[in-house]
Amino acid sequence: MNDITQQTMSYIDIVYHTLERWYKQFAAFTPNLIAGLIVFFLFLKGSRWLSETTVKLLNKFLPKGQGRTTAVSLVGLFRFMFVLLGTFLSLEIMGLSSVLWKFIGSLGVAGVIAGVALRDLVASMFSGILVGVDKSFRAGDYIQLANYTGTVSDIGFLTTKLITDDGKVVFIPNQVIFNAPFFNISASPQRRVVLDLEIPVDVDVNKAQQSIISELENLNRKNKIDDPVQVLFTKVTDGKFYLNVSFSVASTTSFLNARNEAIVLIHNRLKNDGISLITPLSVSISNSEQS
């Protein structure tokens, strides 16, 4: 009986000393815990106040557009980094930073796998930020990117939204932008419209050439464009002359309207001159410097 009593008392003594040790450790840890939580709370509230204040200033002084959107996105990124800094500092004050680093180290393999899987996603995000910083193009610009030509509707974190000439909406991953050359046609004050036409081989080619030049020069005078009109015969085959017609329009001019107006003018003038015009083969555009 005495042995059982002594063994029971020893167990009770072990539990008591263990609880007492935990209590002393907790009592010693409590000030650091409170200080760490206070620091984290201050960083959290401070990041919110700083981000809201910065966004208000950006909305006040920056015009609407990609510049403001990119700046606001950067504010959100810096807010996250600020809170992350506060988290590390709080854990250091509480003496738990070693636990965090051990946890991060255990995630090393998973981090490598996630990095490979998310590589394209991260590349698109940073490319979207760089577009805003570099200002290569912005919403409203007319560009040629990844074999697509159209007007930039929106530049997001992951994709750039493009409205093509035929009204289609194309979403292009931002990482594509810095992996291949692209053309910002709006960056030039003028852009060149190129029409590939066909006329029968038995017509007066000189008259056809002069008629087209005359009509497009009248159009240039109307639109106050100084660039010359070019009408070149590229080849003769299958009973047809192939003509390459190029003229300039202002970058702000609607490409579809300019093309439509030019084709109608050429068609009507050649019809009045007794020259039949076969349907245009193709239409393309370029910066005026590239003509």
TrEMBL record:
SUPFAM superfamilies: Mechanosensitive channel protein MscS (YggB), C-terminal domain, Sm-like ribonucleoproteins. One of its GO terms (cellular component) is plasma membrane. Coiled coil: none annotated. Its main location: membrane. Pfam families: MS_channel_2nd (PF00924). It is found in: Cell membrane. GO terms for molecular function: mechanosensitive monoatomic ion channel activity. The chain crosses the membrane at residues 26-44, 70-93, 99-118. The lineage of its organism: Bacteria, Pseudomonadati, Bacteroidota, Flavobacteriia, Flavobacteriales. Residues 120-186 form the Mechanosensitive ion channel MscS domain. It is a multi-pass membrane protein. InterPro entries: LSM_dom_sf, MscS_archaea/bacteria_type, MscS_beta-dom_sf, MscS_channel_2nd, MscS_channel_C_sf, MscS_channel_CS. It comes from the Bacteria. Keywords: Cell membrane, Membrane, Transmembrane, Transmembrane helix. This is Small conductance mechanosensitive channel.
